[in-house]
Amino acid sequence: MSTFNQSTTSSRSTMTLALLVSNGSFNAMTYMQARKQANVERDETYEQMAKYVEKGVAARKRSHMEVNPTSKAARRIKRKSSSFLYVLDNGILRLGKPKDSSWWINYVQFSDLIMQEMAIRKKFRERFRLPHKYWKETFVPKLKSHPLFEQWHDGRMYAFGKKESSPIELLSLAALKYLGRTCTFDDLQESTFISERTIQRFCRAFVEYGSTSLYDSVVIAPTTMEDAARHMHEMELAGCPGAVTSMDGTHAPMLRVRYGLKQAHKGHKLDKPARAYNVAANHRRCIQHSTAGSPCTWNDKTLIMHDEWAMKLKNGEILQDVTFYLYERLEDGTIASTLYRGAWAITDNGYLNWSITVPPFKFRSEKKILRWSEWIESIRKDVECTFGILKKRWTILSSGIDARSIETVDQVWKTCCALHNILLVIDGRDAPWTDEGDETNCFAIQRLNSGDNEETKECDNLPENIADVVRDANAEAKPIRLMSLEDFRMKLVNHFDILYTNRKLVWPKSIPRKTVI
Predict the structure, then answer these.
(1) CA atoms of 125 and 213, how far apart (whole Å)
(2) Which residues of 294-312 are buried (b: 16+ CB within 10 A; e: fewer)?
(3) pLDDT digits over 187-201, tens only?
(4) pTM: predicted TM-score of the whole model, two decimal places
């Protein structure tokens, strides 16, 4: 109790005691009742005094700030974590609101005027990864119509109807910059005039939306021939019919992890805990499928055992309507083709020895096998390029995800995968690729030709349509999932060697396109 409180209490007790003595009615009971009543009156008085003092101090602070913005009271308010000062036209300071921020003025309020400059549109794409036009006309309306963001819809009030909710435009920009630039919430608060807590809550809802609704709409794993046809064009040009994807594992580091899970998430490739994902991508760098997330200590063999899409492919539940022909040279030297059924993926040697996951050879000295292995190594660089583009564009996946739960880490990963596919569509890079045309201009084919004499190649005069030389027209298609890896891989080698010796091998080439800004 303060000195003022003690002196006030003692004086009231003395007055009460003197009054009782003078009346001649002094006893212990009456004294205790009187003292209790005095304490109640004292507390009520103190509460009233505190309210008046608080109102007076606040009024003096406001008046003093208007006269002297550099005063001690002004600096004290400015240091508050959720307060920013904003200068009005008449020079008076007040607390800034989200619609006073530079992001709102430049990117929302006067965007039609400011975004006419190409340099500014380019900067917007660099900062937030999405083109401004797509963000404003398509992306923001989707967020506003989704129930996860209902509390931030336009006109929504909170704090008993006293305050308007933060604009979803600024919150979406903060979430995109957080994923793309790994900014702290404090930096985002300074740019949006929105509190850190609000931005954190929105980012949690954003990654939940990105890993569910957004992910399911743009990351679609092929399950039928119609779905697979969109991904197999480049593989057929490269002499790999039936290949529907390239598959590999990757990691996303975590900055926080519970102590009980740290050992399982600390692998030998990274110096920090991480989550592992098995990812399938086509040759156009489009992500087709990703697992939910696993400990970093799991290798590719374990990852694929927990990959539902890969296990369905192995068990024959999906993509069994995919058919393709493979050339083979008969004993009499003629060329025939055999029909096969099912799809397969190009992988490295870290996966299990399944016929649906075909890696290059490790230890073989035969020339045609070496050429095929080098070619497959070049083809499967598409999934490695996908990882590089993904982690360079969304730097949170390479610098580390600062989340307390592994569920949030997996949600961030899937959200970035969905945004990656969206950008491919926006830039027009999801269109089918073409062939190189002149094989001498392709490094992958030059690599195969090194050490070979072009004049010694044997040509078999292959027909234009591979189905014209069917070995047995009445035979049913052979399911590749029932074959061993060695048998099916040698079939692919023989098919590739026939295409190579007849100069029918081409390298897929993307169509040059400008990045949309």
Answers:
(1) 23
(2) bbbebebebbbeebebbee
(3) 999 999 999 999 999
(4) 0.81
